[in-house]
Design a protein that fits this description.
Chain lengths: ~160, ~130
């Protein structure tokens, strides 16, 4: 059994920096599985927005994700994500984090410590029925097989996890 | 060692500001709905635009003109407070605090460190 930091040393998890500026300190921890990093590196930068009213100067999917990661890691107020249902708890302790075009699935290992297990576009999640549920179940599968300290996840609402 | 997205500082500054304004407008719209029963349709009628336009404006990632931001705020019954401050200066803290001992040294020898901190306090101490 290991902490997220130890799992990072073993390259089983990768820590996400959140794009903090030099005067900011991390207030929350964000980790992801290695396949998420590949997606962020290879797919996200060229991903077009699927929003039907998208205009050229609007936030690209890459910029949307940058904003989400920065808000989380920097400790910014997350009430927007709660009130606009951009961060929603699902069954089995899995949470879904949303931007206009991207969906992340993962769990809170501890308060203020989130682990991303799956990612896809909103368009694909809508197009393929059951994909959301599949990602949720797959996150549970990955959590079960990860050599993470018990308890591996916490449950509860926004006040409990943020 | 941590992973960072490939977004440069200039791009971050622009996109995070757009997102900040969008989030503020969305929260204002949610407040207006909760307190006054305002709907997107009502805002659309007030601004004489289609409801789908309001939907785009309030989803958080739209690059709105300053005029549009002002008009949405007006339609929702809000006014805008705009402020620029030097990068790296925490909000409401424009006076530099006196330097403190690192937290580790306080933990290692709390009595000694507490004593040293008190001596550094720039305020008069009652006898």
């Amino acid at each position: 059994m290991a902490t997220p930091a130890t799992l990072c040393e073993r390259s089983e998890l990768i820590k996400l920096g959140g794009g903090l500026s030099e005067h900011e300190q991390p207030e929350r921890l964000l980790y992801a599985f290695p396949h998420i990093i590949q997606w962020l590196d290879k797919t996200l930068p060229s991903l077009p927005s699927d929003f039907k009213h998208f205009m050229e100067e609007d936030l690209s999917p890459l910029e949307q994700v940058d904003v989400l990661f920065h808000d989380f890691v920097s400790g910014n107020d997350m009430s927007y994500y709660e009130r606009s249902h951009s961060m929603t708890p699902t069954a089995l302790g899995v949470w879904e984090l949303k931007t206009t075009d991207v969906r992340f699935f993962g769990w809170f290992h501890a308060p203020r410590c989130f682990i991303i297990a799956n990612v896809d576009t909103k368009a694909r999640c809508l197009e393929f029925e059951g994909l959301n549920g599949g990602y949720r179940d797959n996150a549970v599968f990955r959590r079960r097989n990860l050599d993470l300290n018990e308890p591996k996840f916490i449950t509860g609402g926004y006040a409990d996890v943020l | 060692m941590s992973y960072e997205l490939k977004v440069d500082d200039r791009q971050k500054a622009g996109s995070r500001f757009i997102a900040k304004v969008g989030k503020a407008l969305t929260l204002a719209a949610l407040d207006a709905r909760a307190t006054s029963g305002f709907t997107q349709q009502a805002v659309a009628q007030k601004l004489n635009v289609n409801r789908s336009v309001i939907n785009r404006w309030l989803r958080g990632g739209a690059n709105l003109t300053l005029r549009t931001v002002g008009e949405i705020a007006w339609a929702l019954g809000f006014e805008i407070v705009f402020e620029l401050r030097k990068r790296g200066l925490p909000q409401g803290k424009n006076i530099q605090k006196p330097a403190l001992e690192p937290i580790d040294s306080v933990q290692q020898d709390s009595r000694k460190s507490m004593s040293s901190q008190l001596q550094k306090t720039p305020y008069p101490v009652e006898p």
